Amino acid sequence: MLIDDFLSQSAESWPGKTAVVCAGERWSYRRIEEASNRFARALVAEGLEPGARVAICLENSIETIVSLFGVLKAGGAFVIVNPQSRTDHVRFLLRDSGASILIAGRRHTDVATGAGTRVLPFGSALASAEGASDLPRLPRSETDLAALVYTSGSTGESKGVMLTHRNMTAAATAIGGYLDNTADDVILSALPLAFTYGLGQVTTAFRAGATLVLERSFLYPRAIIETMRREKVTGFPLVPTMATLLLRQDLKPDWFGPLRYITNAAAALPRPRMQRLRETFPSAKIYSMYGLTECQRASYLPPEEIDRRPDSVGVPIPGTTARVVDDKGRRVPPGVVGELVVAGAHVMAGYWNRPEATCGALRPDALSGETVLYTGDLFRTDVEGFLYFVERKDDVIKTGGEKVAPRHVEAVIAQLDDVAEVAVFGVPDDVLGEAVAAVIASVDGAILTAESVRRHCLRHLEPFMVPKAVEIRKALPTTLTGKISRRMLRAEKAGTAA
Hints:
Elements: H1 3-13, E1 18-22, E2 25-28, H2 29-45, E3 53-56, H3 62-73, E4 77-80, H4 87-97, E5 101-103, H5 109-114, E6 118-119, H6 122-128, E7 145-150, E8 160-164, H7 165-178, E9 186-189, H8 196-208, E10 211-214, H9 221-231, E11 235-238, H10 240-247, E12 261-264, H11 271-280, E13 285-290, E14 299-301, E15 315-316, E16 321-325, E17 338-343, E18 350-351, H12 355-361, E19 362-364, E20 371-381, E21 387-392, E22 397-399, E23 402-404, H13 406-413, E24 419-429, E25 433-442, H14 450-460, E26 469-473, H15 486-494
Parallel strand pairs: 1-10, 3-4, 3-5, 5-6, 9-10, 11-12, 12-13, 25-26
Antiparallel strand pairs: 1-2, 7-8, 8-18, 13-14, 14-15, 16-17, 17-20, 19-20, 20-21, 22-23, 24-25
């Protein structure tokens, strides 16, 4: 199956049903199908070759959705570029992907020209194909490249993750399965479409024939709350920073009766925030999930397990495997920390133009010989096989001969009621090698001091784990995906530019 089959099949089954609501517009499945066909004809007329990459630099919008399906129908692969990205990053993505066309506004003309890419405004492309004949159906395969999704570059330069139609349909089928998505669902997403968590809302919604309410950002949470109530939203994906902003609002539990599930990814929710979400949205099941761009989603915690295993990210998504292994690729016993490896049809085809990086991430399994994804993340399991994220390998702090997992320290600090968000990381230290540092965003109006945080840590942590430096501020820097950026904080502390 191809990704655009999700659209075509839903347009055939529910032609008049609202597919997308965005910025005051409501488009049906039939309208999006017809528009994406016209857009595909325009791309073919522009000379787009099968397999060519088309960059899309637009806000979360109906135009973005029509564009990505149009690219696929024309036999190309799309690269969604977040329009909030710096100019140099946009130029890098265009050059690295080799995109022949950029769907964008006029303000990106100079950037595209410098990268050797032609700019094609969305409106012009759609208008040029008016009245043209039906789109010829090109021979395509599920192993064809569908998208290049670039990693956030938190540990280095961004890499283009190659996702085939098979990769993306497998992930959408698995995720839509455990969320029980149907055509009755109304999913609200304020996540950037340039990343797999946001993009996945499109594929899972269109697979089920659901309605997608697309927001351009979470900048005005009060307005989004009103939209949730007006549209009778049933599904709400978020990241921890969104949960923090949401819970600062004056919310009534009886406002969100239709809401049946909330998903959380990108980073774990501290226990106090998880509990507040459950109290605020009593009718909703909360799914804690773990994933990375290279496989889109790896695991989820069934909501009924939250009380028993609040720190777990659950079990592998349907149709996949995930296990914890040692340095030689052998499975480790429960409770022992090792690297998580993932296998399944959803695992990427590799990194674009980076064979060495691909060989490092995709390796044969020590026992079965099948290709597995080495995630670079440290995990452990319990005796029943549930997964627990420990730390990114690169984030482990080596201080005075000891190893400290930042997440463990963050979990302790997050127990304080006045803590909204926290990031723990290592900074260079002449004596220790690395010293533990913590930067905390306090709850509005709270009185929180570095000394009170350190006293709390001394009561609950080994001495070498207690942060040597604690800073309190109003907010923490985040990546475009909504993750707290330890890299930026490290750079600040080191006195260099992020």
